[in-house]
Each structure stands twice: as structure tokens, then as C-alpha cells.
Design goal:
It is built from five helices and five strands, in the order E-H-H-E-H-E-H-E-E-H. The chain is an alpha/beta fold. It has a single domain, classed as Dehydroquinase, class II (Rossmann fold, 3-Layer(aba) Sandwich), CATH 3.40.50.9100. The chain has a five-stranded parallel β-sheet with strand order 2-1-3-4-5, sandwiched between helices. The longest helix is centred in the first third of the chain and has 15 residues. The mean pLDDT is about 95. The structure holds 1,3,4-trihydroxy-5-OXO-cyclohexanecarboxylic acid. 1,3,4-trihydroxy-5-OXO-cyclohexanecarboxylic acid binds next to loops.
Length: about 140
């Protein structure tokens, strides 16, 4: 099983960016954790971060047929990128959306996700363990659970 983990804008700043909201672990810490967890679960994990909408869209397109699922934290693109929504809708593999913070407890503009409606599901507010939970969910989805 192969999973692609996509992190959008400003997530390269994890660890230094608003640690009270996003925690003290860095993107490298997060990716290391996912690769290790993947090894334990028999999942081959590929991680990619970009601050650019088009790069994320290209990665989503290229994942189709190459991976069994996508985990994406689109960052602020969540709230307004119809292009990322359409990219997710265009592929036949399941996508799970993850947010580290509880977006519903924050500013109003964060309460809307234009992307969630085309995903298999969304995990919000559980910190970076949300990515691991998404990984397990994709594994279960593949097994038909
Ligand atoms: C985020 C929440 C978004 O509102 C924000 O723009 C981010 C991170 C999260 O993981 O909690 O960049 O997606």
C-alpha cells in the first residue's frame, strides 16, 4: 500500500509557527513519524510540502493510479481553493483532509472547507496524530472496513 502525504502553505514552518496552535514538532518530525508509522503498518509513505497551489495540484494529479490514497493538509487553501478541490475530485483514489488545529474553534474564515466535500473524510483538531489516524483510516478503507 502506498500513501502520499501532502502539506500545503506555511506547514514548512511547523515548530516555529504559532507553536501554541500547531505544537512544537517540525515538518521533519512529522514526516519522520509518518514514515516510521508507515513502516510498522506496511505502508509506503511519500511526503511532499509546497507553498504553491499549482505544485499541490500537480502532485494530486500524479498520485492517481500511483498511490492508494492521499492525506492532505491544504493549509489556508482549504478555505478558498476551488482548484485544489477540483484536483481532489478529479482523481479516483480516496483523499483524507487533516487539520492540526481545531479550525472550528478559530476565526470564522477557518470554519469553511471548500475541499472537504470531495474527500473521504476530515480529521480536525487532534494535532499531528491526525495524519497517523488518517493513514490508518486509508488502510481500513482499502480493506473495505
Ligand atoms: C491548518 C488550518 C488552516 O486554517 C491554516 O491556514 C493552516 C493550518 C491546520 O492544520 O490546522 O495553515 O490547516
Amino acid at each position: 500500500m502506498r500513501i502520499l502525504v501532502l502539506n500545503g502553505p506555511n506547514l514548512n514552518r511547523l515548530g516555529v509557527r504559532e507553536p501554541g496552535v500547531y505544537g512544537s514538532e517540525t515538518l521533519v518530525d512529522l514526516e519522520t513519524r509518518l514514515l516510521t508509522r508507515g513502516e510498522h503498518e506496511g505502508i509506503e509513505v511519500t511526503c511532499f510540502q509546497s507553498n504553491h497551489e499549482g505544485d499541490l495540484i500537480d502532485a494530486i494529479h500524479e498520485a492517481d493510479g500511483q498511490y492508494n490514497g492521499i492525506i492532505i493538509n491544504p493549509g489556508a487553501f482549504t478555505h478558498y481553493s476551488y482548484a485544489i478541490r477540483d484536483a481532489i475530485a478529479s482523481v479516483s483514489i480516496p483523499t483524507i483532509e487533516v487539520h492540526i488545529s481545531n479550525v472550528h474553534a478559530r476565526e470564522d474564515f477557518r470554519h469553511t472547507s471548500v475541499t472537504a466535500g470531495v474527500t473521504a473524510g476530515q480529521i480536525v483538531g487532534l494535532g499531528i496524530q491526525g495524519y497517523e489516524l488518517a493513514m490508518l483510516a486509508l488502510k481500513n478503507l482499502k480493506r473495505g472496513k
